[in-house]
Amino acid sequence: SMRYKKILYTFLGILISICFTLLFLEIVLNFFPVNEGLRSQAVNEKNPIFRFEANREAIYSKNWNFDIKNKVKVNNYGFVNNNDYDNTNEIPLLSIIGDSYVEALMVPFEQTISGLLQNEVSNKRVYSFAASGAGLSQHLIWAKYAKEEFKSNYFIFVIIANDFMESLSKYGSSPGFHRFKINSDNSWNMELARYTPSNLRKILRRSKLAMYLITNLRVHSIFNFELRLGKEDQRKRYVSNFDAEVSDIFWEEAKLVTDIYLDNMNSFTGQENNKILFVLDGIRPNLYGKVSSVDISNSFWYKIREYFMDKASAHGFEFIDMQKDFSYEYKKNKELFEFKTDSHWNHVGHKVVSQSILQSNTWKSFLIKIDNINIYEYIH
After folding, report:
1. CA distance 267 to 140
2. Which is it for strands 154-159 and 276-280: parallel, antiparallel or unpaired?
3. Would you give the distance in Å from CA 317 to the centre of its chain?
């Protein structure tokens, strides 16, 4: 009948309009620096190392207005680095391991700690192994991989406030990483959160509109934010992008994670203490001297940093406390170390961190390592 035809035509008209609108947006977004994503590869027992799609250049951008944007290269091994890795090379190698701070998608490679340190040595290798969401447990996995696959001689680990929670399988959410599963008697084992990209994900990765909605607009978090609005007063306050206050249970777990990490560092890296360096992020943005309503010295990040540094000292490891170096640099130059709309280090942060690393004994030892013979061993 005419009535049903009219409903059908109206429905088809709406459908065609929606399709045309989506197609139009898809075409228009091709002219903007939409975040293209890094395309995590499947991680399982056969491929246990978290990596991205190899040999690819991608645009990284953040926020609806692309206020942070960068061109990123993923190398032949699937790590974010402008240089390819070579597993037949015998040249001394320093591996930098961490999470999104080392991955540094928002900073041009030449201005990252990996790029800056590689630039300091033409006759040696500096490789980076990093991805957003990796915790201390994943550091150990990449360290073992760097040792076995590339014969890494030296290691630098970057420690951030959320690395402790992201090391525990009971809290960790990012798939593809190894985490500590703590048993009731405090023994532990590594647990891999297997990851297989779905066919739908593979399709959406190729759509500018889908990527804009998911990565730039973050539509999923908009809904979460609306749900949270009513609970605004109860929301915990943060120090260095992590809860200032944590439960007693989590505090004990974070200390245990630190102990496991430092106790097993030598066996996973296959190296002595003098070839391992830890870099601890400062307490940002609080170090700029702004008055805070949170008691910093009672916050999780303040306390776990103290605990970590005490334990590292007891083990005889070298570490850099970026709180001191950042504070000194800020008083001198009044430049911020992170972005206005993102808490990761900007190019200034990376520059100051790399300058601190250049002053370390670990770096100086790496500099004088000749023809795979450590000069110290050579002298003795």
Report:
1. 9
2. parallel
3. 22
Strand partners, 57: 73
Q: Where does the pLDDT of residue 234 fall: very low under 50, low under 70, confident under 90, or very high at 90 and above? A: very low
The CB density around residue 222, as the number of other CB atoms within 10 Å, is 10
As a whole number of angstroms, the distance between CA 58 and CA 73 comes to: 6
- Tell me the C-alpha to C-alpha distance, in Å, between residue 24 and each of 17, 19, 27, 30, 111: 10, 8, 5, 10, 37
Pairwise CA distance, residues 95 & 87, whole Å: 13
Q: Stretch 31-45: mean pLDDT, rounded? A: 96
3-state percent breakdown (helix, strand, coil) of the chain, nearest 5 = 45, 20, 35
- The CA distance from 12 to 49, in Å, is 48
Residue indicated by tokens 């990040």: 301
Q: DSSP letters along 234-279, please?
A: GSPPEETTEESS--HHHHHHHHHHHHHHHHTHHHHHT--GGGEEEE
